[in-house]
Design a protein that fits this description.
By secondary structure, this protein is α/β, with parallel strands linked by helices. It has twelve helices and twelve strands. The chain has a six-stranded parallel beta sheet with strand order 3-2-1-4-5-6, with helices on both faces. The chain binds manganese (II) ion.
Length: 326
């Protein structure tokens, strides 16, 4: 066990899960500031780096990126630590190579999280019904009777975790407690428009151009409640794309009223194959559809496929299937 009241003047390591998201970063950074206020020495070691959209978060530059740092210095830090906490991380399988150091260190191990099936630690503070670990961090600070230590930086970090893990307060997991905590964070003077502005998806020009071409081309088949569109190799010559720039195009078709099935054909090169992505709403299973006709698969409402035909032939093939589909 860890006696919470002894957490002062100690060496603490916080380990968020790999590819840390807004909740993993926000929760870790909030605890980083909080434990520092209790006069501890605190380090956050992230197994891998984080997305550029998080580069502005208070304290984020202090995070040590394991994959980009000399292993000896990290090993030393971990060996000398008194406490190691997994944050927004239920299992060492999500911290990559840090796993070995985690087990070899004599530090007491703790976990603050909301994922199901947390691994056994000396100290466990988790609830799988809350939508974000940042809520657990708020509860943790409250449980330690230290809410007066919440400041604007801590509140900003917790709010980022809360808003990103709740899909901006839209998911079914959102409770009155989520909003109660958000309210307490707002009282600390956080700048909500600034946070949203930073986290909003940013388009580069070519990505926006390609999206506009795809939107212009959307065809609707009302009888089959289907929409589809495409991007060809010529478009990509005009607007060179980076990987990921065409992500999300398929979703736009589904935004049309009464459409339940959307397809996007992508001619990455002038040669084959054509990549197709499918999205659906409700019962229409695009995983089965793609497996059966497009040699692909995925999930019920999001799947991909591939065809060794030209773009034109691929679309013809798709339309012939759609027209004969129940
Ligand atoms: Mn989370």
């Amino acid at each position: 066990m860890i006696n919470l009241h002894e957490i002062s003047k100690k060496k603490i390591i916080l380990l968020p899960h790999n590819n840390p998201d807004g909740d993993a970063l926000g929760s870790s950074l909030a605890l980083f500031f909080y434990f520092k206020k209790l006069r501890n020495k605190v380090s956050i070691i992230s197994p891998t780096t984080y997305s550029k959209s998080f580069q502005w978060i208070p304290g984020v530059k202090e995070i040590i990126i394991f994959s980009e740092t000399k292993k000896n210095s990290i090993q030393k830090k971990i060996n000398e630590s008194d406490y190691i906490f997994l944050i927004d991380c239920n299992n060492v399988s999500r911290i990559g190579e840090l796993k070995e150091s985690f087990f070899s260190s004599k530090a007491k191990k703790g976990l603050i999280d909301h994922h199901p099936f947390p691994m056994n630690c000396d100290f466990m503070f988790y609830d799988t019904t809350v939508p974000s670990t940042s809520m657990m961090v708020f509860r943790f600070i409250s449980y330690m009777n230290n809410l007066e230590k919440l400041d604007k930086d801590i509140a900003t970090c917790l709010y980022i975790g809360l808003m990103t893990d709740t899909g901006y307060f839209r998911y079914p997991s959102v409770t009155s407690e989520s909003h109660f905590i958000a309210g307490k964070l707002i009282e600390k003077g956080i700048n909500i428009p600034l946070i949203y502005n930073h986290l909003q998806e940013k388009y580069n020009e070519n990505k926006l151009r390609l999206l506009s071409i795809a939107l212009k081309r959307i065809k609707i088949i009302p009888n089959h409640r289907t929409a589809y569109t495409f991007i060809n190799a010529l478009d990509l010559q005009r607007y060179p794309y980076k990987k990921g720039d065409t992500d999300g195009i398929t979703n736009y078709g589904l935004g049309i009223k009464n459409i339940v099935f959307s397809a996007f054909f992508f001619e990455e090169r002038e040669t084959f194959p054509i990549k197709i992505s499918f999205r659906s709403k409700g019962d229409f299973d695009v995983n089965l559809f793609s497996r059966k006709y497009f040699g692909g698969g995925g999930h019920k409402n999001a799947a991909g496929g591939i065809l060794n035909k030209s773009l034109y032939e691929s679309i013809e093939y798709f339309l012939s299937i759609i027209n004969n589909y129940k």
